Amino acid sequence: MIPRSGAASIVAAVLCWVGAFSPGSVEGRQRPPTADSSLEILQVRPNFFMIAGAGGNIGVQVGDDGAVVVDSGSAQMAPAVVAEIRKVSPRPIRYVINTGPDTDHVGGNEVVAKAGLTILNLNAAGLAFTHGGAATIVATENVLARMSAPTGEVSPFPLAAWPTETFFERRRYMYLNGEGIEILRQPAAHTDGDAIVFFRRSDVVMAGDIIDTTRFPMIDVKRGGSIQGEIDALNKLVELAIPSIPLVWRDDGTRVIPGHGRVMHQLDVADYRDMVTIIRDRVQNLIGRGMTLEQVRAADPTQGFTRRYGADPGPWTTTMFVDAIYASLQQSRPR
Ligand SMILES: [Zn+2]
After folding, report:
1. In Å, how far are 44, 99, 103, 269 from 263, measured between CA atoms?
2. Scanning 30, 52, 54, 230, which has its CA 20 to 30 A from the CA of 42?
3. Where are the alpha helices (DSSP H) in the chain?
4. CATH code, 187
5. Ligand 1 center to residue 80 CA distance, Å?
6. pTM for the complete prediction?
7. Is the model's pLDDT at 88 over the cut of 70?
8. Domain extent for 33
9. Number of folded domains in the chain?
10. Is the pLDDT assigned to residue 107 strictly greater than 60?
11. What's the mean pLDDT in 220-236?
């Protein structure tokens, strides 16, 4: 076992005790899916909404400056996503920020950005509009690299879906709707293009595919993901989030919205981090004993977590997760 901090253990114990008679966690007002759309929209904060059911979870911050949207879901659901955003914001969509390169997070970029309006009137400054005045799409340079293609090849996404503002530094920021927004690049977690988006006043963190509460995290070693980078990113999320302490009976504290699954509190993120770390340590230990991949698989390193997070068959099976950790640890081994 990975020893948890004493404070975390005490909080866990108290939460269990409080949970015995608390009315249960209700994450704001939730509207069930309507007939015309299979989307769910959840009010996480007075000016922050989450849209689920369009692929990856989508975050929407609203205010006088317009809407800031984190991830755009799949292409197919994009018109419905735009309709949901319109319901909560009479002001234009200004930004689409992508947490990673996957289709279920960037697929709606073109439709959502074109439904919006760039916040800066660049014409006035004698500069051309980007994307004909559409909302700005912000992502890491590696997301653009994945979405575009080398010259002469067909790119997997149309030009209008590509990020228009990319960055390589670890921290990009802006200040909109009365709050600081930090975009924190995670260089090698789920892929090499991930970013966490932290809304400082709303106290909401969009984690992207670094967390999927329904299964083991998808570590895409071929696209630059790594087990150590994944754990580093989870540690960053634990560090950004603050639980409701000392008033632990309040349903309060930072909200962490994963790429897929339900809204989390800091303790949930710490549990997920611990799970990933325990499995990493087991695989490391088995490799240290000279085991081959076949032997590591046979030793069942996800034991105790497989029922909750495992999947078989599926697009991301338990075996694929173990293989990714194995490959990642082999890559990082000193030679
Ligand atoms: Zn995803």
Report:
1. 9, 16, 21, 10
2. 230
3. 6-19, 78-88, 103-106, 109-114, 141-147, 227-240, 266-288, 293-298, 306-309, 318-332
4. 3.60.15.10
5. 18
6. 0.87
7. yes
8. 23-274
9. 1
10. yes
11. 97
